[in-house]
Amino acid sequence: MLKGRAHRFGDGVSTDHIIPGRYAHLRSNLPELAKHVLEDADPDFAKKVRHGDFVVGGSNFGLGSSREHAPLVLKMAGVSAILAKSAARIFFRNSINLGLPVLICNTDKIDDGDELEIDLAAGTVRDVTNGSALTFGKIPEVMLKILNEGGLIPYIQKHGDIKV
Amino acid sequence: MPKTLAEKILSEKSSTDAKAGDIIIAKVDLAFAQDTTGPLTVRQFQSTGIAVLADARRTVLFIDHAAPSPNANLSNDHLFLRDFARESGCILSEAGEGICHQIVQESYARPGDVIVGADSHTVTAGGLGAFATGMGSSDVAVAMALGKNWFRVPESFRIEVTGDFQKGVGAKDMILHLIGLIGADGATYKSLEFHGGAIEKMSMSGRFTIANMAVEAGAKVGLFESDETTRRFLESEGRGEDFKPLAADPGATYEKTIRINAGRLEPTVSRPHTVDNTALAKDLKGVEIQQVVIGTCTNGRLEDLEVAAAILKGKRASRNVRLIIAPASRRVLLQAIESGVIKALVESGAMVLPPGCGPCLGLHQGALGDGEACLSTANRNFPGRMGNPRSFIYLGSPATAAASALKGEITDPREVL
């Protein structure tokens, strides 16, 4: 069971919002890079986020670049899952590859600051603040195997190969 | 069962009868990364525990996003990539050679290949019939280590483009129009497959422009058939032996067919701050711009520079506009020098950058000031994309960019042709 607070964002949060290209010189200095996470969507996010919190978006979360640094800095900032109505393809796959779940559900009723409880195995989200309950879409089996190993690289370390 | 282009390529590369929705393991023919994603890709590869690249001569690291490097941190990333290339035997494309996607289509991509790159615009090589898709560093690292990866076979949208483009209208206007029509997530996970008379007549340069922007509608890949135009292109690049014909089967299943009449398209522009926020250039008359960029993996080819030079030759760009030209590769730059295109552009007031990504992603070479607006031939206009979240980016064709540079405001190129 994951528990934490929701940080609410709108539709179309791009990887440029999450980690702008102007910080590309910090990509080999991840702790420094992570200080700028989501800066162009909420300049105070890096200061506000606490370990275990959730990022809640609208549609097409993570559109844009393939930079895996986007989910990486979210994970480093302590984010334990992303909830969105839909997610861009590369961002979704990158997040799973880093062991960061992206849960596709109707996020309309989740407000900024709401306390959420997420049961990954059952596929449910409970909004403790407003009492509502949600279910999220099933993560494809091949991705679930990767997620359960903690990500793609740990998966390869263990199995030495990729199978479907 | 009749197959789409995506199903056809993934069937061959997985040795299965692949159909949309299947999860398959496919052989990867080329894996690459660039200087902003490459260091993480190399570190992830080194973490896999697999010591040797599956195919070092089909693994390429490109120094293009920060080329030449604007600061010590990025210079050190470049050193790291050079060291890895030396140790692993993979190919390094140095600063000054050009943008990864341009060099992939000039030198590596073959019709029917599966290509993965740690850059979302890897889709560009779909213009010559390669199943080329952007992935993150971990996935590309796995392809480097194993020579394969897993894929979900995408459903396909058939984009049927008929008719003839008007003068001053072209591939860029068509793809911006399509993205405006279906939205920035209108094709998420799909294969966009381009067919019809206007596509058959289109140059390779135009096909690459369209394939490049497939990802801006969320697509996994943007695919064109491999035909006589493809064959002539590969021959002109000195690798005619890489040609093979590729066509979708009649009767293949498409999730959707979208019909576009090229003759009815007009010069189209994406407004800040999303690519799908499109308008006609003529309706944006009066919007002042302080910078124009002609280049990038979308529109930095010889044909694009020729279109711009034809409009600007013998004239002077507006004194209120910084006109930046960024050729997509050394080969393009050389051709543009030999043909006189560079001379015409420089005489009109342009600055010419070294081949590479230029100011497209806000790293260097033309960051915008507060409140400034730019008309760029690039593919993205998200807030902060060109280095400043308080600036405004419009996207358009090389013709619209050149016409706008002349006037100092967004201009329909048909006004100056």
CATH architecture of chain A: Alpha-Beta Barrel
Main beta sheet of chain A: 7 strands, mixed
What portion of residues of chain B is helical?
A: 25-40%
Number of helices of chain A: 7
Count of distinct strands of chain B: 18
Helicity level of chain A, as a percent range?
Answer: 25-40%
Number of distinct beta strands of chain A: 7
Most extensive contact: A-B, 46 and 59 residues
Largest sheet of chain B: 5 strands, parallel
The termini of chain A sit apart by 27 Å
- CATH fold field value of the largest domain in chain B: Aconitase, domain 3
**What overall form of chain B do the CA principal axes indicate?**
globular
Quick one: CATH class of chain A?
Alpha Beta
Given the helix and strand composition of chain B, which structural class is it?
alpha/beta
The average pLDDT value of chain A, as a whole number, equals: 96
Structural class by helix and strand composition of chain A: alpha/beta
Tally of separate domains of chain A: 1
Question: Can you tell me about this structure?
Answer:
The complex is a heterodimer of chains A (164) and B (417). In chain A, 28% of the residues lie in helices and 18% in strands. Chain A has helices at 15-18, 30-34, 45-48, 69-76, 89-97, 141-148, 152-159; strands at 2-8, 54-56, 81-84, 102-104, 115-119, 124-127, 133-135. Chain A has a 7-stranded mixed sheet. The mean pLDDT of chain A is 96. By secondary structure, chain B is α/β, with parallel strands linked by helices. Chain B is built from 14 helices and 18 strands. Chain B has helices at residues 5-14, 38-47, 72-88, 100-108, 137-146, 171-182, 197-200, 204-212, 228-236, 296-299, 302-312, 330-338, 341-347, 398-407; strands at 23-27, 30-34, 59-62, 91-93, 114-118, 131-134, 148-152, 156-162, 191-195, 221-224, 256-261, 268-270, 278-280, 291-295, 322-326, 351-352, 373-376, 392-395. Chain B is globular, with a radius of gyration of 20 Å. Chains A and B meet through helix 4, helix 5 and helix 7 of A and strand 1, helix 2, helix 3, helix 5 and strand 7 of B.
